[in-house]
Structure formats: structure tokens, C-alpha cells
Amino acid sequence: MDERSNDTEGRLVRIERLLESGQREVAPAWRRATHGEPRWAVTAAILVAVALQLKVPEHLTLLPFGVLPILEVVLLVGLVAANPRRVEPRNKRLRSLGLALICVISLANGWAAAQLVRGLVHGTETSGAATLLLTGGNIWLTNVIVFALWYWELDRGGPANRMMGHRQFADFLFVQMQSPESARPDWEPAFLDYLYLSFTNSTAFSPTDVMPLSRWSKMLMMLQSTVSLMTVVLVVARAVNILK
Fold first, then answer.
1. CA 44, CA 67: separation in Å to the nearest integer?
2. 151-180, pLDDT tens digit by residue?
């Protein structure tokens, strides 16, 4: 009751101040229509993921070496050509193209992770400690980028829907949403925020300062933590065993 009373009193004080100043309360940027976010961050992240996949040993790749990275670059070129500067409202074909690109990267990295874990469990992975650590780190970092792309693409219907303010209920609760006074009035989540979310989830194996609200976001974060934990534990354990 005390917390509810304090919250009510705080709102009343805020309303009184607005009335006294003759101003109208403006919805935060993440709840209203805004300009699309710049494309450079997500494009750079995808290019890094493609470069990392080119470093994966061929026996861990799903298709012949270089086939999937080339396909990913082709899909990316199509997306950038359609919206070169900003992520703007897209038709269903462009959205499907973006989801297809993320699926291809996810499939390639998931296959590599599964083959690496399988090789470590069955003792068929004979790489040296240094090579093993580099391969594991490669897959782990690509996994961070992959899940950042999924979070970015699915939260409140994707970047285009967020830009239009179509969905008010967030799938991820950022600190700036809880405490709008701690951020600029034009703040809204962008790709780098989702990349940070993905990185912290892969290192802490749990939510940190960004909380999942919807069921799908919780399940996706749980899947990411599982993949990250298995990769880190098995790769490090095997590398330590080789060094001994």
C-alpha cells in the first residue's frame, strides 16, 4: 500500500507541475512514431559474423566452405539496397528476406556448435588447444551476434514496428523504460542495445539489467545461455586437458 500511495503521489505532483508550466506530457520515444534507426550497426555486425564463419574449420561447416557466407552476403546486399541508410518500414518480402538472413547465419553457427560439441563429447575433435580455443571463441562470438539479431528483429514486432509505435507492450524491459528521467527524451532501443543484451546473457548466463517480459523472449534467452554454457565449458575443459 505504501509503494502504491507513493507512486500515486508522485504522479499527482508531476501532473501539477505540467499544469503549472502549461505543457503537455509527451510519450517517450519508444512508445511513439520516430525515425528509423541507422543501418550501419546491424550491417557491421552481420559482416563480422560472416567473417567469423569464414574462419570456422571446414569439418564443422554445414555446406562446402564459403557457400553459406556468400549466400549471407547476397541477402545482406539486398537488404541494404532496399534501405541503405536507415531501417524503415518494409513490405513483407523485405522482412522475410531479413528473417531469412538471420536464419541462415543461425543455422550455420548452430551446426558448427553442435558438431564441435559432438566431437568433444565423442573424442573425435583432435585440434590443438590453441586452435580449439580460437574455434570455440569464434562460435561463441557469432552466437552473441546471432541472438542479438533475433532480439532486435522480434522485440515488439521488429525495428519497423517499433519505429511506427505500433506495439506498446515491450518484450524486453530496458532501464531507460523504467526510469525515463535517466535517458534523453529521444531514447529508444537500437541494435547496439540488443547486442549488449546478448553479450551479457552469454557471459552471465542470466538476465542482467535488461529483463525479458514475454514468454518467447525468456525461452530465447534460455536457449542462448544453454548454447553459450555448453560451448564454453566443453571447449575450456578440453583445452585444459590437452595442455596437461
1. 20
2. 999 999 888 888 877 777 889 999 888 887
